[in-house]
Structures are given as C-alpha cells and as structure tokens.
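help with this:

***
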Amino acid sequence: MHPIHKLLSPHFRDTMNINATGRQILINAEGVLESTVFPGKYALEMSSVVYKDWRFDEQGLPADLLKRGMAVSDESMPNGLKLMIEDYPYAVDGLEIWFAIDSWVKEYLSLYYQNDDAVKSDKELQAWWSEIKNVGHGDKKDETWWYSMETVEEVGKALTAIIWVASALHAAVNFGQYPYGGYMPNRPALSRRFIPEEGSQEFSEMVENPELFLLRTISNRFQATLGIALIEILSRHSTDEVYLGQRATSEWIDDERVIEAFERFVKNLKDIERNITQRNQDPNLKNRSGPAQVPYTLLYPNTSDMAHKGGLTGKGIPNSVSI
C-alpha cells in the first residue's frame, strides 16, 4: 500500500457515502437545503459562482487568514503570522491545529522521501496528482497556482491542506450549527419578505408590533422545524467517531518509525486541548465565550476522548467528513 494512501485514508472515511447521500436529499433540486435557506433554488448556483474563484493553494489556514486580511506575515512571530485580532478563537486554535498537522506530515514524508528526486520519480504519486488537476478539477487544470508536485515541500503543503479541510475546517463550520443556530429566532435561515420601506403600511406594522412582524418575516413553523432538525443531525457526532490523532485500528501501520512520529502528533494535539481549555477560562479573552457565554470548543481535537459517546457535544475534530 502506498504510504500517501496510508496517511490520507483515515481522512476520507465515509466521505463518498455522505457526499452521495447529500446529493440525493440535501443539495438536490427542491431538497432540504433549498427549502430552508434564503437563496432557495439559487443556493447551489451561488456556490458555483463562488467556486470560480477557488484556488487549491488558498485552502490552508495561513493562506486563508492572509487572503481575508485577518493576518499579516511577520517573521518575528513563532509561526510567521501576526493576527490582526488577537482574540480570534478560530484563528488562534486553528493555527495550533494546522501546524501540528504540518509537523506530522513533514515528519511522515521524511521517512519515505529522502529528496525531491524521490518525489519526481514516484509514478503513483504523480498520477494521483495529475488526476486531481486534470480530472477532478478539469476546468482549472491550466491554472498556474497548482503545485508542480516536484518537491517534498510541495507534497507536504498539499497533504497538510487536504487533512486540514477534511478534519479541522469541516469541524469548525459544521458542528457549531445547532449550538449557535438551534434557536431559530437567534439565527433565522430565511426571510419571507423584504425589510419594509419607511412610510409604508408594513413599516407601520413593524413599528407597532416589532415582535409579531419579525415572526411573520422569518421562517414559518414548518421551515423552522425542518431547518432545526437538519442542523441537529449535522451537528451530532456519531458514536463510532474517529477523531484527529486517533486511528480506527492499531494495525493501520507496522513501521515503528511512523508509530513514534504519530505518537508525537497525538501529544501535540493533547497539549492543544489543554491550551484551549485554559484560554476558555481566561476572562480577558471575551470573544471565546461571547455574550451568550458559550465557550469556543469547535476546534478542541478530542483526541483524548476514547469513550465515543457521540451526540451534540459542540467539540471534537473528526478525521474526515463522515456525518
């Protein structure tokens, strides 16, 4: 089995299955998503427009923060980045996770690729990368930002980004849906009418009874119930979840050097768990809980949890998109 396959396999667990199910009932025409979000039938069309600007080399967290102006390059900082908002939980926790993954990937690759020539001569690796570019993203195959995949460094960047997207990024955007949006008036998914113009009859109704006007504007009872049910399902961790830093079986690799490197990765993740817990207890970091006093735990790895109880925990980074 190719070493890159062994590295990435846990991060694609059940992903094909959930993607197929999603196409059938979630993002299909007149499906659940279109029925519960404000763009309706234009939801996926909007996503297609956004994809036109998609770049693989911008999927990593550091590149994303730089692109959005949330960080600047600063070589005096430990990881070469300075956050524009120091109390930014997603970025602070995420960068620790990102560089833990990055270190693990680099150490893993060093065991199999002694130099760049080993990368260039790996026919399976080159064929895999070619398929990603020319088949998976055939419409973007001629873009100049693709990694040439001729150096160990480029392989590391690509693999770290893939693992990050499949694990931590998905955890950050998915598992907080119910905790933050389960109370529909707090985060209505759609508006059934426009904000009224001043001087109109509807404006007078809004001024006279703003609460009733709001309830007649946001999702109706059926739409709200469907939306809440959807995000509750999406936000649940399964009882057989395999978190970042865990493996479904102890026999996933038989190379003692890899096992030792993986144990160092696990230790880094457990240290990050303690860091996140400490930051959430710091009264000076007000953005970590916000006015609702909900501690930010979406990027808490949960590597140390072997109980596998599942449920609406609001924390934990699964290895893969496997709802």
Remarks:
- The two ends are 27 Å apart (CA to CA).
- The mean pLDDT is 94.
